[in-house]
Every structure is written in structure tokens, then in C-alpha cells.
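Students often ask why inverse folding is considered easier than folding. One informal answer: many sequences map to the same fold, so there is more than one right answer. In these notes we will look at a single instance of the problem. The structure comes first.
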């Protein structure tokens, strides 16, 4: 950071000017015909990616004849549920829905502020915290357009802005390379796991349904609370890698009724509804916890199947091929106990199961364990990026 420090010492040793966003930018006032847009030029809030992930092509068309126009260099912000941190620096021109704000530099500030610098300021955690503090609505909060325009923006000299953008771009580039490598490793692991669990042309196994090798039970129906005796494990507590999210923000009281649903080491929980249907998690140690009603607990017969083997199978292509054929698809996919009990699983000897588990556990750790391998490196890089981003975007305000 020495070059940036030198530039600050040279150009603004006594602090920098801060202005409200409304002083240097405005929301796009222009409109564009929806008929002129396609999946790459229309931006709805649904195709902005959470956590500052940019955007993906739109999967639907605008529902009105005219929409807000945006230009290359505008900063687009998802205005529903600001805590999702949806933001994108436009690299093309197009149109966006009413739930997306298109922030455009005013003409008189275009030679004083670089749009990538403005993007980094508005993608900071400080901005999104401010946005949530001023949002309106409980179930579906929306950012306050007036409050957003009052957010204060530092205005260091252009040379300083561009050096900050260069450094932050470099961090993001390095992070993207690690993400691409990790994704490639995960695809490799999935292919190897599916091959290892494919017994269609191998002997020495029994084929049994989940209903034959496990007791299936729906979870506890209760209003989650901020405090209580027992952690309340919900669908949202299962991450993309099939792991239990650390900690919890919801609890229930211990009662004779809730105690029926206590979790034990070796239980496998399966999501039974919504976009997350079928995803599963292995409870690896005893918890003071119960599981919620939109989950199904599989408590396997350990004389037949190793719970870790069952969980690995529940990540495999063979499992998902059956799940997608069996699930009902009315409004949202529904994966009930009767359906889940019909999924067929190969059951080799317990010795063979343990050998397979030992192999797959090692691969799983390499691609999903935040304490080792690429996930640990990526987590460290993100923490480093966040630290330097916050440091680089914090300036003493000039008197």
C-alpha cells in the first residue's frame, strides 16, 4: 500500500473532501423500450448475484413496456433486501427493473470521480450496513432511495482513486482465479465420488431403499426465537457443501414435545421443500439441537449402513437422479417422507463402506473444509481483500 500512502501524503495530507452521493450522482431518469432488451441487457433484481457477485443473464423478460435505462459505467444496486448486497458495475448499456437502482455520475463530476471507484465505495460493507439501517419494511425490506442519496462519498484525487481501483481489481482477480480452481476441483471430486459409488456393474452389494435402512421422521413445528435451550436447525443452516452452518441465530425451548426431535451424531437431515429440496447434512457430533419441520431426519440402522456412507451417497449423481424423478413439482418441489423412503441405495459391506468413507472424507475436506486446502486459502484471501478494501476506502475528512 506504500504507493497509495505516498499519493495520499502528496495530494491530500490533510484529508479529502466528502460529498453526499446526490451531489455527485443521480438515478437514471431515462427510459428504454423493453422490446429492445435481451437476456444480456435486461437486469432484474433476480439476476443480480448476492454478496457483490455481479450478475448473470436474465431468465425472464420485463413485465412492462418501458423500463429504466442504464449506461456502461452506471452502478446498479438491488433495492430489495439490501442485506443481500446485490450490486454490479455495468459493462454495457441496457434496461433494469424498478427494483434495481441505476446510479449515474453527474456530468460535472465525471472528470473528478472514476465510476469503478464509486462502485467500490458503494459495494463496501459500510454502505450496505447504512442502507439496511435506513431500509423500510420488515418481511421484504427496501432501501430508501432518498437515504441512499445522502450517503457520504470520499473524493480523493483521481490518481489516488485509480490506484485504489487497480489494487482492489487485483485482489478480485486473484480471488476469481482461486474460485475457478476450487470449482474445477469440486467437479473432479463429484466425478470421482460418483464413480466410487457406482455399483451398477459391480457385485457384492445389496440394493435397499432408504425406508428399509433408516427411520424417517419430519421435524418440529415451532416459532423460532432469538433465545432458548436448543438450537433450531433449519434448511438455511445447511450450506452448499452439505455442511451444518456454524453457530445459530434461532432457538426453541426444551419441552417434552421438542425433545422428541433432538439430534444425535449420525443423523442425516434432508430438506424436503423449495429450491433446496433434497440437500442434506450429516450431524457429526451430538448437539443440543432439534430440527425444523421442513427437514426429514434419517436415522440409519448402523448394522446395515454407515451414516457417513449414507451422507456421501446423498451428494451423488445417483441419489439426485432418483430425487428429481420422484419429487412433486407443483408450486415448489416437495420431497416428502414417502417419496424419500423409495430412494434406492447400494449397501456394500460395512468394511467397504468405511473404506469408501475414508477416501471421500479426504476429498470432501479439500474442497469444502474452510480450515484446509483451497477453501482456507480462498477464505483468507477474502478476509485480506475486505481488510484492505475498508482501509483503502476510509479517508479522514478535510476540515
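Output (designed amino acids):
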Amino acid at each position: 500500500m506504500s504507493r497509495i500512502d505516498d499519493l495520499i501524503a502528496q495530494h491530500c495530507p490533510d484529508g479529502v473532501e466528502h460529498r453526499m452521493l446526490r451531489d455527485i450522482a443521480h438515478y437514471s431518469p431515462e427510459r428504454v423500450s423493453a422490446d429492445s432488451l435481451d437476456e444480456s441487457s435486461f437486469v432484474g433484481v433476480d439476476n443480480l448475484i448476492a454478496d457483490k457477485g455481479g450478475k448473470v443473464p436474465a431468465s425472464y423478460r420485463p413485465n412492462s413496456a418501458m423500463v429504466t435505462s442504464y449506461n456502461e459505467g452506471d452502478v446498479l444496486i438491488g433495492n430489495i433486501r439490501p442485506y443481500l448486497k446485490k450490486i454490479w458495475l455495468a459493462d454495457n448499456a441496457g434496461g433494469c427493473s424498478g427494483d434495481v437502482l441505476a446510479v449515474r455520475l453527474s456530468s460535472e463530476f465525471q472528470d473528478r470521480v472514476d465510476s469503478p471507484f464509486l462502485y467500490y465505495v458503494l459495494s463496501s460493507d459500510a454502505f450496505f450496513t447504512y442502507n439496511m439501517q435506513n431500509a423500510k419494511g420488515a418481511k421484504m425490506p427496501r432501501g430508501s432511495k432518498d437515504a441512499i442519496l445522502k450517503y457520504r462519498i470520499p473524493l480523493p484525487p483521481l490518481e489516488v482513486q485509480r490506484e485504489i481501483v487497480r489494487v482492489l481489481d487485483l485482489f478480485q482477480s486473484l480471488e476469481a482465479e482461486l474460485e475457478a480452481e476450487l470449482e474445477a476441483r469440486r467437479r473432479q471430486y463429484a466425478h470421482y465420488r460418483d464413480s466410487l459409488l457406482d455399483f451398477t456393474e459391480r457385485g457384492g452389494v445389496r440394493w435397499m431403499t432408504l425406508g428399509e435402512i433408516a427411520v424417517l421422521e419430519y421435524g418440529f413445528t415451532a416459532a423460532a426465537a432469538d433465545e432458548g435451550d436448543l438450537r433450531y436447525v433449519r434448511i438455511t443452516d445447511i450450506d452448499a457443501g452439505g455442511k451444518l452452518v456454524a453457530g445459530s441465530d434461532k432457538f426453541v425451548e426444551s419441552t417434552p414435545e421438542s425433545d422428541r426431535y433432538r439430534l444425535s451424531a449420525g443423523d442425516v437431515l434432508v430438506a424436503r421443500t423449495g429450491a433446496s429440496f433434497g440437500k442434506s447434512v450429516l450431524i457429526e457430533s451430538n448437539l443440543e439441537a432439534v430440527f425444523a419441520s421442513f427437514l426429514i431426519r434419517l436415522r440409519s440402522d448402523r448394522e446395515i449402513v454407515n451414516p457417513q456412507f449414507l451422507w456421501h451417497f446423498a451428494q451423488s449423481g445417483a441419489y439426485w437422479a432418483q430425487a428429481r424423478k420422484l419429487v412433486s413439482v407443483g408450486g415448489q418441489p416437495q420431497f416428502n417422507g414417502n417419496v424419500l423412503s423409495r430412494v434406492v441405495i447400494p449397501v456394500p459391506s460395512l468394511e467397504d463402506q468405511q473404506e469408501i468413507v475414508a477416501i471421500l472424507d479426504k476429498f470432501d475436506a479439500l474442497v469444502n473444509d474452510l480450515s484446509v486446502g483451497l477453501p482456507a486459502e480462498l477464505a483468507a484471501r477474502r478476509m485480506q481483500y475486505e481488510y484492505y478494501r475498508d482501509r483503502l476506502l476510509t479517508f479522514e475528512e478535510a476540515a
